Every structure is written in C-alpha cells, then in structure tokens.
C-alpha cells in the first residue's frame, strides 16, 4: 500500500525547510539553522494563506519581506534566494487544488510585495543606522582632532559593525577610512581604496546634479545630500547604491571631513527591472504587452506639434480553428512564430510591435510623416504572413486582417485610436479578411452608433421605448380595409424615431429579437382585439386581420407556437385574425424541423405569408411544401407600374406569379403601391390585396380604425 500523502502542515514545514536551507548561509543571525527554519514557519504559513485567500492582500507579502530584515537577512542575496524559493516551491507545496495559472500569477504578486516590504524595512533599518552613525560621527569629531580613545572606540564599533558601507574622505576627496562592508561591496582591499579620490568614481549614469551637490557640500554650502549612484567594480560590473554624503565639521564649525554611507541596491534594482519586464512583456512571445504598448502610444500621441503616428491592428483570421483542431499548444507555437515575423517588420526608429492578447497584435510607427510609412508597415506585415508556418509537421497558412489608423499627434486619446483601429480591422475581416483597411471616420461613427444601439436595446425594451405603427392592407377588388401590418419603431432618447432596419438586425445578432418579437406580437394581437370591439356591429366582411413579421431567429425559437397560442387565448382573438409574415430568404432550403412550427400554426388557422417573394431565388416548386396561404410580392416587381405604360415584361412576370399562386390556392398581396394607376393595373392582373403610401403611410392604430369605418359605412 502506498503511504498517505503529506498533510498541508507537513508540506508547509517542508517549504519552510527548503527556504531556510537556501537563505541561512547569507544571514547574519546568531541562531542555528534549525532555529532559523523554525522562525520561517509562521512566515511560510502567512504566504500560504495569502496564496489561497479569496481576495489578494499585498500587505501580507510586504509584512513577510519586512520580517526577513528583522530576522537579520540583510544581505541582498537573502532576498534574491527567498524570491527564487517562493517562485519555485510556494505553489508546489502550498497551492492545494487551486487553479495553477491563477496561483502562479498570485505568487508573482506576492514576490513583488515581499520585495517592496523588504526594501522598505531595509531602508528604515539603514536610516536608523545612518542616524546612529551620524550621531557617533558628530561625537567623534572631537576625537578625530583630539584622538580621545573612548569615543574613538565607540565610533569604531559602529563603523566596523554596520551592514552598510561607510567611507570618510577629506574635503579634497581623498579617501581616509573605509569599513569592511564597503570593501565587500566594491570587492577591493583597504590598501587599494585608501588614498584614492572620490572624484575618480564617475559613471555614465550619474544624475546631472550629482557632482554639483558634491561641490556644494565640500564648500560648506550644504550639510548633506542623498542620491542613487552607480559605481564600477574592478571586474567591470556595476554597483548600484543609495548614497548619503554628510559634511563633518570641527569644534569651531569649520568643514573638515565628508562621510559617505552606501546601501547596496544592485540586487533590488535587478529585481525591479525583472519585475518591470515581466509586467510589461508578454510571457508567451516576449513582445511588449498591452500595458507597455499603451505607454508608448500615449507618448506618441503627446509628442507635440508636427509629429504623427500610424497604427496597424492585426487579428489573425481563423485562429480559433487552429486551437480547436490542433490544440492550444500548437496555437501557442503559431503565435510565437507570428510574433517573430512581426518583430522583423518593425525595426526602423520609432516602430514597435506588441501583443494585446489572444491572436491580436499591434504595430506602431511614429515620426513627422507616417502617411506612407504606416502603409509600408502594413504591407510588410501582410507579406510576412504569406509563407506557411510549420507546426507539428503541418504547414499552416496564416491570414490576417489589419485595421490602419494614421493621424497627427494630440488630437485623440489612446482609447479612441485603438477603438478606431479595432472597428477598421473588423471591417477588413467582414470584407473577406487577408487584407488591410484604412480607418474611415464616417464608418467609425456608424459602427459606434450601432454598438451604442446594441447595448441600449435591452434597457429600451424594459423602459417601453418601442411602439408600433400600422399600415393598412386594402382589398383591390372593393377598396375595403381588410387588415394592417404591424411595424415596430424605436423612440430613441438621442436619435429620435428609428425604423426597423436600424435595430432589427442588431436585435437578431444579440438574441433580443425573441423577447422583442413576442412583445410586438402581443401588442399587435391586443390591438386587433381593440379594433374588433370598436367596430361593434358594423356590417363588414369580417374582422380586421393583423400581420406580424417573424424573424428567422424567432422562427427557430422553440417557444414560438406556445407563445402564439398563449397570446391568442389571453386576448380572445381567433387564429384567423392573425397572419405571420416570414421572409422568403428565411425559408430557402428550410427542412421539416424548421417548417414544423409553421405547419402547426397554419393548422390552428393562423395565416402564414411568404414576405418579399421574388427576392430569395427560391424554387417555385417549393411553394407546394410550404405551409403558406399568402404571397407578398416584393415591390421591385411592380415599380414600373407606377407609370403608364408599364414594362410589359414586369406585367408578364406578375401575371405569371399571380396565376401560379391562385392555382396553389394562395392569395397575393403587393407591397409598395404608390399610385392609382399602379393599384388599378394590379387589380386587373388579379392581385388580392395591397399596401403602400397610395393608401396610407404607417401610423397610429386610431387612423386605421377610422379608415376601416369609412370603408364599412361607405
């Protein structure tokens, strides 16, 4: 039998043991290693709890970093070894069953917090030591001049025992004394340092004010200064320090010596650079990430007058197929190769490439004339993607769509530029992909408006911003009003009244068409009921029929039949007073499953109309299998009839359609009737009903009731 796995406490102690073994050799503690490891157990427990906590708390990491300083882990190597240990083993021993990627990300944030806490605590300790040394130095000023043994011994104890580097020089810059910590920092012997001049220790990265501050101090014009300064070691490596230089005066207040206190920050600086790199670069491709790119873009947009920018926003076409068919590992290898190719395209000054995430990349170019360079950059990117990419023994063809934005600096924010590029990229993708498109402000405005309408649709339905207008259906034989088509409108707070073509496609795309269509159906059927009640006992041919449009999405919805039945039952309207209009294109190639709900509704007595007939290129023989009772002839067939004489070809086509429809026992309704001559010609051809501006424009329900009463009373 296999042994039971270690419990959480055992794994925690094992982590603390590994941590202690790594750090103990570089500590200044008087404890034994087991005692030191025991000190690390509560710190390990705090890290473990922070790793698995519901909400991340950076204070825990900072507290653990500060605790290391309190445990005398003041050597910079102690922090480096601690972070390496946490990075390698914390998730392994303390992660439990959590999500690996999430735990890794949280572990990295804990490391960052530990480094910050460690640096803060070490700085505070250093400042305390500096204060003690400064006090000792002040007390020792008289000793230097008078050689008092007791004070000299006290100063020497602080001087030699300090963890930071200390040096004393005269006002000419000649080094007089240095402590052991400073010798270790520079890797030099005391003999090689004594007698050297501090003026020799210049470095290319010195801040501009460094030596001006020094001159002011030795002239007695300032008492101290604090800067970050780099020094060259004998082996050519760079030592970074927090340097504090103070002026020591004699008993008469005259400047006599300068005292330098140095804290080695090399490891901390390297750690910060590493953390900065990880925070600003993509882990997979090594390219700058979204954060770094936005920093560069903002800088480019604030470059000043006369400067311009150009941006290429690339999205790979069909990348999801690669992930789905070959797996995410293959997809990652593809992205790495694409990143390498893109990097080779942006090598000129002012150009960069970044990965925003997924399969989205951006390339930026800046300078006084980016009109041509951005086009050239986009062309280079497209050419770089031409050659297939080998992944797992397969040659994959890579295609991409690019949105290009170019313009002067200072006019737009980074978010606006990226939004325009994103919109333009999708325009290129909609045009077939494998191409780049230039941004068009008008197209951007339309896309932004569409997006705004899309996001406003759900709330608009809840707020009651939709209303319905009705256009009468007139019998061509006697001119009576037989019904009306319900046409939904949107009373938008900013854009006013919007017609269906502005928002129905958006509702289809988002799925909101189902609740919106259900609302339109119920309101229209209720209106039909109201018309019936208001007509009272008028001697008319029958109830006014209401025509309601069905979208393809509604047609495929499983609740269509039940919703319709429920609405008819609640309102008390007979099924034959309702006609549902379905576009011909929605029924092209429809199978029995799609036609089944229409057949059930037709069997109940609901009329089904085939809308826009003649635009969908359907096979006329299919009419026999469709459960329709009405053909609505598209207006394109009858436009020529608005003038006399009508096109004889159009007359023959309409005559043939009417004859075919009647032979199949289908009624024919004509849309878009605008003149009396057109209406008369359609009557002669045998069409049954018509609608259009000749009779009435869509309007409120009261107007249709008035028209119906006029017809009923003659």
TrEMBL record:
Protein origin, superkingdom: Bacteria
Sequence ranges assigned to domain GGDEF in this UniProt record: 307-441
Domain EAL, first and last residues per copy: 450-712
Boundaries of every PAS domain copy: 151-221
Residue intervals of the PAC domain: 225-277
Gene3D superfamilies, A to Z: 3.30.70.270, EAL domain, PAS domain
Family annotation (Pfam families): EAL (PF00563), GGDEF (PF00990), PAS (PF00989)
The protein's name in its UniProt record: EAL domain-containing protein
